[in-house]
Amino acid sequence: MHAALRRRPVRLLPALAAAGLLTACSGGDDSPKADGPPAKVTVTPAAGDKAAELGRPISVRATGGKLTSVKVEDHKGGAVGGRLAGDGTSWTSDGKIRPSTTYTVRTETTSSGGRKASATTSFTTERADKVNKLTNTPNGGQTVGTGMPISILFDHPVAEDRRAEIEKALKVTTRPAVTGAWGWVKDYSGKDRIDWRPKDYWPSGTKVSVNGALSGISSGDAGGWFVRDYDFGFTIGADRRAVIDVPGHRLTMYEDGREVGSVTGSAGSPQDPTRGGVHTVRSKNAAETMDSSTIGYGDQWMLDSQWVTHLTASGTFLHSAPWNKSLGQVNNSHGCFGMTTADAKKVYDFLTIGSTVEVKGTTNPNKTDVGNGLEVWQETWEQWQKRSALRDS
Fold it and tell me: Quick count: other Cβ atoms within 10 Å of Cβ 29?
């Protein structure tokens, strides 16, 4: 998980609202021109509220004058950002209130008659029955390949009528600018997920920042509330790709569009053909036991392999297959691309997390589901855009 977004205090003539009146704790203008009562300030949620309802922003409103300063902090000292209306009579927080949090609101006002006053109030929000958390891929600070999507996996379900608001709260900033879009996905695990993919592969060297202002947003009755913001970034590394020619029993490696090497191997048999299309390297493992029971083949085999590059979540891998005596001659695997141990290491070392591997010439007619790994390139850009919850907004 990643550190929460820290919002800077808003000093710019800020203000907050509540469904309760603030009592001036210092008031009266020394100027002889000051006249009349101080401005009245109302904060929502109400001042002194011990269980403020979730799902709303903090608002502050002044009557009989203007807000000249609003400062809001949570009980941990974190500043809450917000915006002051142009006429100076109201202030609204940027985000919504978090569960189980006490907020303190400090305001300064000037009345219509010139009287200055300051006031302080506080309220506490209700507890969330369920908290939704997320896991992001890639990790913060990671350098990844040019095919890497941003993938956010939720602990609990996200209701369809909550997805548009959540998607709006997720911002992607890139240097240089890159066109892309969010799309909702059902992960292979059965959990809800939202991915962001660029229209085309990332340019090498791109810096990516992801900000999720999710704190205080509901994901629905089954999913619960988000209680923090998220902030992480990563870098796009070298443009390394591989292409598997299934009939030719060959995997060819490319860097920046130039061929830099190739190896031979065996892809899936006619009975279990390798999945086609463009796959994204999702993880790697230097040593792994190939267990047939994990992909629906019972106890047919239990084989130790090295230099394993994972493509799909369902078990399409690139790996060493020293038990196969027909490497480079016959396609006879259960869907993986097997190689000698030395060649598997070459491929393992060359491809990074987020590199792409395109499978050509397979007889497998089935398109891999996007959630079966990081399979965003299985769809065209037009198909991908339809996954956004904002497509009709």
Answer: 16
